[in-house]
Amino acid sequence: MKALAALAALLASGSALAADAGARPLNWPAIYMFLAFVVFTLGITRWAALRTRSTADFYTAGGGLTGFQNGLAIAGDMISAASFLGISAMMFMNGYDGLLYALGVLAGWPIILFLIAERLRNLGRFTFADVVSYRLDQSPIRITAAFGTLTVALLYLVAQMVGAGKLIELLFGLSYLQAVLLVGVLMVCYVTFGGMLATTWVHMLATTWVQIIKAVLLLSGTSFMAFMVLRHFGFSTEAMFAAAASVHAKGTAIMAPGGLLSNPVDAISLGLGMMFGTAGLPHILMRFFTVSDAKEARKSVFYATGFIGYFYLLLIVVGFGSIVMVGTNPEFRDAAGAIIGGGNMVAVHLSHAVGGSLFLGFISAVAFATILAVVAGLALSGASAVSHDLYACVIRKGQASEREEIRVSRLATLGIGVLAVILGILFESQNIAFLSGLVLAIAASVNFPVLFLSMFWKGLTTRGAVAGSLAGLASAIALLVASPAVWVNVLHHEQALFPYANPALFSMTLAFSSAWLFSVTDRSERATRERGRYLAQFIRSMTGIGAAAASRH
């Protein structure tokens, strides 16, 4: 409890410094509500941590969650800063085209339901690397999976850091640099509360219950916001859209496609990345090992799809309502006429417009706590890739002690946190949903091709899987750096080397092609044995015979 009080004191002292420096007047009711809720969620995390009794509890919450519970937890993972803050900001700026970032992710869930969920639960135990390496050579697969996990986790962290930094900047009156540094400190504290009690992997039991609670609260809060917006327009969506078009700088063009992505290649590439990238996010795939069997895994996807789809419907109302209720209100603009806190904060301003200071504090706290849980989970997933997959399994050949793994994991967490802060500062001006779209493109290029091929293609070999992952990773990162988002907006060159904003169409193609080519040309004895083991894998994936069972709580 002393540590919890220290967190509150840290935030409060930062607010006092900002007030002394003559910053914008602080909204103390919102700040008190924010602090109370963040301390409450940290307490919930600590409570869940103390319930951990085994490695299975720590890795996968014992595998004993119901489909409904796991579906809510998955929804909590997905409706984070990128969704609530980023997509509403996309709609505020671009109107109809902001839906691309919502529908792209939603379209990925039927793929997970019909292609991945059942086989993933039957074949794996803790991570998706267990599935890919089921019949392949463990060490090379785990090395490449670790690098892919690290890359996806780090870049996904950047989007969350930008959202959390902007939120703290807005609420507490700090500079963006101070806010991002503060989020980094809180992330370390959150990881500490979450556990690292006997292993170095993600504390799934703690984060699952926190995500369930926050998913319910965020869905409830957003529902209230949407209700109040519709009430403002007499419960007429037609009146809301007409009012938004009348006050937006783009006029009726916000109701038509093409304003954000006029190039069809960009649109196709974004759609592919959003759909298949969702099926390649390591922290989402781990959720399917927290249920008892394949049936509950399918139920998880069904419930998650419903919750996420409902949330995105609400964001349409939030985004277009913000155009009128935030965009035309001078209270939410600075002296230069820009939105206070940046465009990513329009949903937060809307909560103030419809519910006052206390509701602003509630929405800010729920959004921030959701970000913090995702940040902690991503940091731990990246750290576990270093400490377990690389250090313990590859470097020490399974001979590392728990203490050594924990020490390496803590150092890795610190390193990941520092990199996330640096990149968060560099990408300050980028839309959060756009950043998350780039991460999904990398996940679609690195993880999804080898995961899909390992489950559905008998001919995949270790050499092909490694080549596919590395080709997807290298090409996705290279094209991302050469794209306008980084080459022009961050590195400030005049013209991008790669003309498209999203690399998924090209990097995914290269990943699949490389995996196929290096597999069909592999005539080694190891490759023959790996192809021969596919039948046993197929039987287990379809029947669940031999799959890991749930532990009793």
Layout: helices, strands, pairs:
Layout: H1 2-20, H2 28-50, H3 55-60, H4 67-78, H5 81-94, H6 99-123, H7 128-132, H8 138-172, H9 176-194, H10 204-232, H11 237-247, H12 264-278, H13 282-285, H14 294-325, H15 346-395, H16 402-426, H17 432-446, H18 448-456, H19 462-482, H20 484-488, H21 504-520, H22 525-532, H23 534-543
Record keyword descriptors for this entry.
mainly alpha; 74% helix; Sodium/glucose cotransporter; 553 residues
Describe the protein in words:
The chain has helices spanning 2-20, 28-50, 55-60, 67-78, 81-94, 99-123, 128-132, 138-172, 176-194, 204-232, 237-247, 264-278, 282-285, 294-325, 346-395, 402-426, 432-446, 448-456, 462-482, 484-488, 504-520, 525-532, 534-543. It is mainly alpha-helical and 553 residues long. It has a single domain (2-443), classed as Up-down Bundle (Sodium/glucose cotransporter).
Q: Structural class, judged by helices and strands?
A: mainly alpha
Low-confidence stretches: 17-22, 52-63, 195-204
The strand count comes to: 0
Question: Number of helical runs?
Answer: 23
Distance between the termini: 26 Å
Q: Work out the count of structural domains.
A: 1
Q: What is the overall silhouette?
A: globular
Rg over CA atoms: 23 Å
Q: Could you name the CATH class?
A: Mainly Alpha
**CATH-defined architecture:** Up-down Bundle
CATH topology: Sodium/glucose cotransporter
Helix percent reads over 70%
Mean pLDDT: 80
Order of helices and strands: HHHHHHHHHHHHHHHHHHHHHHH
Largest beta-sheet details = none
Strand share of the residues? Answer: under 5%
Q: What would CATH call the homologous superfamily?
A: Sodium/glucose cotransporter
